[in-house]
Amino acid sequence: MKKFFSGRVKMILAAAMSLAILFAVVGVISDGATLGQQVTGLVLSPFRAATAAVVRQVEQFYDYLFRYDALEAENELLKQRVAELEEDARDVAQYERENEYLTALLGLQEDHPDFTFRSAYVTSWESSNWKTACTISRGTEAGIEEGMCAVTAYGQVVGMVTEAGPTWATVTTILDPSMEISASIAASGYTGVVQGSYDKDGTLRMNYLSTGAVLKNNDQVVTTGSTFYPKNLLLGYISDAGHDETGVGKFAKLTPAADLGDLEQVFLIADYQS
């Protein structure tokens, strides 16, 4: 191997290397630059390329950060706008409901010009699933008192105020078996007493009907008038009938007129003329 790199072979390799360097130098000479400048440029060219690559990477990184911050800010603005639109939608829905209630209340007031009403929202129901009592948003400070009859915006009986605090009150609904209301069948005039069913099935029961009472499905049952309940307020509709435990009298099962499952607002009858 030593002999291979001795003598003439070494000379040939040296000459070839010199020519390669010369051709490389000549290839980069342009625009009147000196040979020293071009050689320097040739030597520094790889370093300049590497520096340029690093600069490009840094520029791209900063562009990415700037774009990321811009996108993040834009995303936050979009989230805020969506939240505002959702709030506007809720407000519109609330205004629509209030408008419906006020329209219904206007009709209720026209039907009962001798009634004085107080309105309140349902804030919670008792833990039972049978809708036998609820808490409303107004109390004695708003003129709400125990014994006031609560109705829907359509004049359907909800129940009675059984407890009142300064800013709240409890309404015991007609589904509670403890509530007994004198009532009559509007079409026929047969009278009885309506109370919540002990079966806890969301129905009412009209007891003490006479043996000869003719009972028809969907007949309206209304209040007969008392100290707490004005006359002709709608309680429910007959859905079934039968004889009571004595076998002498009759009873009727009623579907409540008020939809307690969707109840949001009640109207309390603060005063009325019998």
TrEMBL record:
SUPFAM superfamilies: Cgl1923-like (SSF159659). Keywords: Cell shape, Coiled coil. GO terms for cellular component: plasma membrane. GO terms for biological process: regulation of cell shape. Residues 68-98 form a coiled coil. InterPro entries: Cell/Rod_1 (IPR042177), Cell/Rod_MreC_2 (IPR042175), MreC (IPR007221), MreC_beta-barrel_core (IPR055342). Residues 124-269 form the Rod shape-determining protein MreC beta-barrel core domain. Pfam families: MreC. Involved in formation and maintenance of cell shape. Belongs to the MreC family. This is Cell shape-determining protein MreC. It comes from Candidatus Avoscillospira avistercoris. The gene is mreC.
